[in-house]
Amino acid sequence: MRRLLLALPFALLPLSASHAQQHEHNEHASLGAHAHGMAQLNVALDGSVLELELESPANNLVGFEHAANSPADRARIASARSQLEQPQALFGLATGGCSLSTQELQSPLFEPEDHEEHEEHEHAGEHSEIHAHYRFACTQADAVQQLDLSELFKRFPATLKIQVQLLGPNGQQGAELTPDNPRLPF
After folding, report:
1. pLDDT value of residue 116
2. Could you tell me which InterPro entries the record lists for this protein (predicted)?
């Protein structure tokens, strides 16, 4: 299943290329680029297994990309992490009997502080990202009819658009979800 999820961006490459031809965009809005306000979500539903992989600039989820410099920064990071640890609510997965079987959250912001690495990071001009990978076991996978990202947009208002690539029972599709259009049917 993990290979399926990792192959999803390549399977949908023709779709994203045609989408790019239809809509004017700059290189920062293309898939794989780091753009504040934009995030990417890969979704694969294979049998009873549902996998979600969210990639977002840290700025969208915590409001900054630097290492925590204050107790307020550390509290914002802890709050974002706590919310990311509730994927059923973030992705509207109330149906299908889906229970979280594995979860992995990765970001330099989640690591213990190392001031030397922090200085190197700031000087290199890199951007911090947050990667969240979830795997669910669904007892009634056919009841999973849509993703609803309303709650994700509500909890992380700096996230303005999410490029979704979905591989499900009805084939593959791509979509751009926004706070005004937060749902994607399977």
Report:
1. 46
2. ZrgA-like
CB–CB of 37/127 below 8 Å?
A: no
Residue with tokens 């969210």: 54
Give the span between the Cα atoms of 66 and 46, in whole angstroms.
Answer: 37
Mean pLDDT (whole number) for 128-132? 95
The confidence score (pLDDT) of residue 52 equals 97
How would residue 142 be classed by pLDDT, with cut points 50, 70 and 90?
Answer: confident
The half-sphere exposure of 38 on its side-chain side, counting CA atoms within 13 A, is: 16
> Does residue 1 contact residue 49 with C-beta atoms inside 8 Å?
yes
Instruction: Convert 104-125 into a string of H (helix), E (strand) and C (coil).
Output: EEECHHHCCCCHHHHHHHHHHC
**Helical segments of the chain, H only:** 2-11, 13-22, 58-62, 71-84, 87-90, 115-124, 150-155
Task: Check: CB of residue 177 under 8 Å from CB of residue 185.
Answer: no
Return mean pLDDT, the chain: 81
Q: Which residues contact 129 (CB under 8 A, 6 or more apart)?
A: 34, 55, 56, 57, 58, 107
Q: What is the pTM of this model?
A: 0.76
| Tokens 């709650």, located at residue | 151
Q: How far apart are CA 72 and CA 57, in angstroms?
A: 19
**Which residue ranges make up each domain of the chain?**
2-16+38-181
